[in-house]
Write a structure and sequence with these properties.
Blueprint (H helix, E strand, L loop, with lengths): L18 E5 L4 H12 L3 E6 L2 H11 L5 E5 L5 H15 L4 E4 L16 H29 L2 E5 L12 H21 L4 E7 L20 H5 L9 H12 L10 E4 L11
Parallel strand pairs: 1-2, 1-4, 2-3, 4-5, 5-6, 6-7
Helix pairs in contact: 1-7, 3-4, 4-5
Length: 266
C-alpha cells in the first residue's frame, strides 16, 4: 500500500539567506515588502531615488549587512545596472526581484491635454523601469531559480477619469508578468500583485511620517472591513518569492479588501 503523504511543516523563515532586490523600497508599499522580507529571514537591497528615505531605512532597521541601500532611478538603464552590480557586490547573489517603483499619482491631465512628455514619464518609470530591472537581473535570477514580483494596481482592471497614463503603465506590468512567466520559466517564476487602497502615511521617511487619516466610512466600504496596509502586500510578496509558491507563476493577485468584487450602483 502506498504510504500517505507526510505532513510538511511550514518554514518559519521561508526566505532565510535569500537576497531580494526591491525598487522603490524606501517608503510606502516598497518598505512594507522590504520589512516583510527581513522578517522572513531574507536580505534586502532597496533602490530608491530618495537618498534620505533610504538611509533612514538602514538606520531604523538596524540589521547590519542584511540590508543595503543604493540610489536608483529605474527609468535610467545605467542606474539600474549600477544598482544590480552594487547588490551583487554586497550580497554575492540575487534570489528575488520586486518591481515596485513607480509614480504614485494616478491622476494626470485629460487625454486631450496630456503631454507626450508626461505620458512617457509614467511609462518610463512604471513600466520600462520594471523591464530594465528584469533584463539586467535575469541571468542571476536564473542561476538561483529565483522569482520576480511586479507591483501593478487594481487600476489595471478599473479606472477613474484622467488616469490613462497610469492605467496603461500598470496594465503593461500585468502583460509583462505573464509574458515573462512563459519566457523565463521554469527557472524564474514571475507574478504580480495588484494593490487597491493601501494607506502608506506611516511608512514614509521620518520627516513626512504620519498616522493615516481614515474615516469609519473609508474602512466600511471594503468587504474586508478596513483599508489596506503595506504589511498586506509584504506578506503576499514573501509567499510569491518563497519556495512555498513553487507551482505559482504568471498570476496576478488582487489585494484590495474585496473592492473589485463589490457591486456598486451609487
Amino acid at each position: 500500500m502506498q504510504e500517505a503523504p507526510a505532513i510538511t511543516p511550514f518554514d518559519a523563515e521561508p526566505l532565510r539567506e535569500k537576497t531580494v532586490l526591491i525598487t522603490g523600497g524606501a517608503q510606502g508599499i516598497g518598505r512594507g515588502i522590504a520589512q516583510a522580507v527581513l522578517g522572513a529571514g531574507g536580505n534586502v537591497c532597496i533602490g530608491d531615488r530618495d537618498a534620505e528615505a533610504g538611509r533612514a531605512c538602514i538606520e531604523e532597521w538596524d540589521v547590519g549587512k542584511r540590508a543595503h541601500f543604493f540610489v536608483l532611478d529605474v527609468a535610467r538603464e545605467a542606474s539600474v545596472i549600477r544598482w544590480i552590480a552594487s547588490a551583487k557586490k554586497h550580497f554575492g547573489r540575487i534570489d528575488g526581484l520586486v518591481n515596485n517603483a513607480g509614480i504614485a499619482q494616478p491622476h494626470a491631465a485629460p487625454i486631450a491635454e496630456l503631454t507626450l512628455a508626461d505620458w512617457n514619464r509614467y511609462i518610463a518609470t512604471n513600466l520600462t523601469g520594471a523591464f530594465l530591472c528584469c533584463k539586467h537581473a535575469m541571468t542571476d535570477l536564473q542561476k538561483r531559480r529565483g522569482g520576480i514580483v511586479n507591483i501593478a494596481s487594481t487600476r489595471a482592471l478599473q479606472s477613474e477619469p484622467d488616469t490613462e497614463a497610469y492605467a496603461a503603465s500598470k496594465g503593461g506590468l500585468v502583460a509583462l508578468t505573464h509574458a515573462l512567466a512563459v519566457s523565463a520559466g521554469p527557472h524564474v517564476r514571475t507574478n504580480a500583485i495588484l494593490p487597491g487602497w493601501i494607506a502608506t502615511d506611516a511608512w514614509r521617511r521620518p520627516d513626512q511620517r504620519a498616522m493615516p487619516k481614515l474615516s469609519r466610512r473609508d474602512h466600511a466600504q471594503h468587504p474586508a472591513g478596513r483599508v489596506g496596509a503595506p504589511e498586506d502586500i509584504g506578506a503576499l510578496a514573501v509567499y510569491l518569492l518563497s519556495p512555498q509558491s513553487g507551482f505559482v507563476t504568471g498570476q496576478c493577485f488582487v489585494v484590495d479588501g474585496g473592492m473589485t468584487i463589490k457591486m456598486q450602483y451609487k
